[in-house]
Amino acid sequence: xxxxxxxxxxxxxxxxxxxxxxxxxxxxxxxxxxxxxxxxxxxxxxxxxxxxxxxxxxxxxxxxxxxxxxxxxxxxxxxxxxxxxxxxxxxxxxxxxxxxxxxxxxxxxxxxxxxxxxxxxxxxxxxxxxxxxxxxxxxxxxxxxxxxxxxxxxxxxxxxxxxxxxxxxxxxxxxxxxxxxxxxxxxxxxxxxxxxxxxxxxxxxxxxxxxxxxxxxxxxxxxxxxxxxxxxxxxxxxxxxxxxxxxxxxxxxxxxxxxxxxxxxxxxxxxxxxxxxxxxxxxxxxxxxxxxxxxxxxxxxxxxxxxxxxxxxxxxxxxxxxxxxxxxxxxxxxxxxxxxxxxxxxxxxxxxxxxxxxxxxxxxxxxxxxxxxxxxxxxxxxxxxxxxxxxxxxxxxx
Amino acid sequence: xxxxxxxxxxxxxxxxxxxxxxxxxxxxxxxxxxxxxxxxxxxxxxxxxxxxxxxxxxxxxxxxxxxxxxxxxxxxxxxxxxxxxxxxxxxxxxxxxxxxxxxxxxxxxxxxxxxxxxxxxxxxxxxxxxxxxxxxxxxxxxxxxxxxxxxxxxxxxxxxxxxxxxxxxxxxxxxxxxxxxxxxxxxxxxxxxxxxxxxxxxxxxxxxxxxxxxxxxxxxxxxxxxxxxxxxxxxxxxxxxxxxxxxxxxxxxxxxxxxxxxxxxxxxxxxxxxxxxxxxxxxxxxxxxxxxxxxxxxxxxxxxxxxxxxxxxxxxxxxxxxxxxxxxxxxxxxxxxxxxxxxxxxxxxxxxxxxxxxxxxxxxxxxxxx
Amino acid sequence: xxxxxxxxxxxxxxxxxxxxxxxxxxxxxxxxxxxxxxxxxxxxxxxxxxxxxxxxxxxxxxxxxxxxxxxxxxxxxxxxxxxxxxxxxxxxxxxxxxxxxxxxxxxxxxxxxxxxxxxxxxxxxxxxxxxxxxxxxxxxxxxxxxxxxxx
Lengths: 398, 370, 151
Known about the structure:
The structure holds three protein chains of three kinds.
Chain A: H1 2-6, H2 10-41, H3 57-66, H4 78-94, H5 113-134, H6 138-169, H7 174-184, H8 197-210, H9 236-260, H10 277-299, H11 304-323, H12 327-356, H13 362-390
Helix pairs in contact in A: 2-3, 2-12, 4-5, 4-9, 5-6, 6-8, 6-13, 8-9, 8-13, 9-12, 10-11
Chain B: E1 12-16, E2 28-34, E3 37-44, H1 52-56, H2 61-69, H3 76-91, H4 97-126, H5 131-150, E4 159-160, E5 163-164, H6 172-194, H7 198-204, H8 212-218, H9 223-227, H10 234-237, H11 258-281, E6 301-309, E7 312-320, E8 328-332, H12 334-339, H13 342-346, H14 351-361, H15 365-369
Antiparallel strand pairs in B: 1-2, 2-3, 4-5, 6-7, 7-8
Helix pairs in contact in B: 2-3, 3-4, 4-5, 4-11, 4-14, 5-6, 6-11
Chain C: H1 2-8, H2 11-22, E1 49-51, H3 67-71, E2 77-84, E3 89-98, H4 107-111, E4 117-119, E5 134-135, H5 137-142
Antiparallel strand pairs in C: 1-4, 2-3, 3-5
């Protein structure tokens, strides 16, 4: 027992296991959240039948995808067909290794953390291209090449925006960035007299384009005539691509949160008398959700299974809210709460953009990336550099 | 000219087949592409041909009226109006003023609901997935009025030859006025969501330009003609069914591109609201049916009557040989004629725009194929 | 100048975002959860046909005049009758109505002089067989009896 507890890699292994086991379920629920939130915008209800308020829908979806027939086109390259979604998923999930979920919840604090994530997302694009290639259909290949070209162009823009943030942070290590924000007592999006909002905006737009989400999703959604790189994939392989896409979204949001929005710090980390935010916000949030679940209990009171699920959920929400009010528990998990809350807000914004905006045409998309995003990001880099040289803000790496 | 080498690219022929989420029905478009640019396109129609004009030769005038709704199934009331006006002209009767006013109210509601469906599906093709639900919610209100009046929402069979079958139901005026109160604010909402949006403007401005000469060459009518700058609306030029009594404007555009057609249709919805309000407030009393014989046998002759349907000029050419069944009914569907201009509009645009252009012509395959 | 600021600060996009954001209130939900909530149809709705019977005597109101069959564009009504020697009137024997070909145009309802044939507000007419869609006199008098799903 002692040998196990003293094992130096115990925490990373445990957290890795938790993430790998839990994240697919989380992705399922992000998909459900997307469907329900889109339904809200569209004055309708979304999934309501499977489980109370549709909450068991991801389980039904998972079962359906797993038992679907696995079709492989006869003329395709079998090994690459198998490899492509695996590549995308593995690179997407590996990026979780350096995400600072909290002060002490992280798998590894690599001192080139951000560079590691960017490298992984570049390799992930290969998964798309191989998927289009292996389908042995020239429409899929063209769709895949378009997606890849779009992702590559916006990675350049993302890179420039991130370099501005790096200048202020002074380190590539993800935990180091949050530590720098804690030391300087400001979220980096607001530093340099608010001039860092420009790289933040460029990063936000490039991130949406990087993950092939609306309004930049012409290669995959309406798909004029082709259905994109994942046409020939069905069942579990397709769900791997979806897992990779949502993992990508989560990682990109996490970078935004870590570098620009203070990571696992609470809002206004410098203002000491606002420390009660650590207690009030999580408790209020969970109690509010609990109250909503209580309404659900009443609605499903005549249904044994759904009513039972709602009762369990209500209890869990109130218990979670109460646990945040206990200082020792709070001190341990409040970092995780703030991080996940901020990532959730950004994911909500993704869904918001999808529900509101029409799609860009492909040439307009590329024009925005190359003619607007990159010059603006470069300009912001230069401006921020000058401001830092002659003012305050940022860490001087000695 | 050098001889062809292996570096020459040939044109790619691509089929946007009958089953496609964006072709608004079973329309097959064969595109000739040069890389990404469209060099020509050809529409193959007929997948929804049901022989309606042939059916007309074997039904009496009264029995044919329900079939007419099924052509432009999105805006069925206009079809009924055109047919009834044509047979009335053959017979030599005119509907009484109250019937005409109620016809105007229902036809304008029908115009609004057709434009709402167009707006929702057009926005959906371009990628905005929420306006379609808002548009259908408003369309629901108009369809409820149809249902309360004649019993059906989509294939209404609302009018009869010589006037109306049903007297207006008690709350018709109240419902219509409530609709006119509610609707302009919703149109403001759609405009807020789409008109100023840079993505929308980027997708629609300069796309699918059809200028006035091209329109006249192809015989294109309706919002496409008005967006090209020609102020031509049959409700003003050749008024029918009492339209001369109401005040409304004809919106026109400047360039004839997709954005102008969008603006023209939105303005038409607002003008329709005006007409409905005027018609409801000045609804005359009186009979609703003219004196029409029980067995309808119009005198020998032919007539062509055209009305301004939501999609363009809808015309009925009826030849009668003094029997109970028409000798020939020929329908001039606006979507059929407008679709012929697709080739001219698509030349030189990108493949991604073809979907937007098909959407902006506002075709209904039931009309194109009959 | 204002135009430049509006372009740079993405004002039109934020306006659109605000419109969709506003709609997130439960009171705007427009969905009807069928089959728990059935839509309320209008009084004049042209739905399932019904042969009315006299409320007191229980006799059918139909006088077998065949006007509905004559007016139907699809010729799907078949009315047979026999002459009753005592009252010297026609009495209805069978009445067949093919709902699978009916387009619910309402001409038969309009034609009936005694309001015997009426198109009611029922719209759930599905049946498992083609023959089930051809209604005889008894089904016409009873009307379709759709399954009510109540928990």
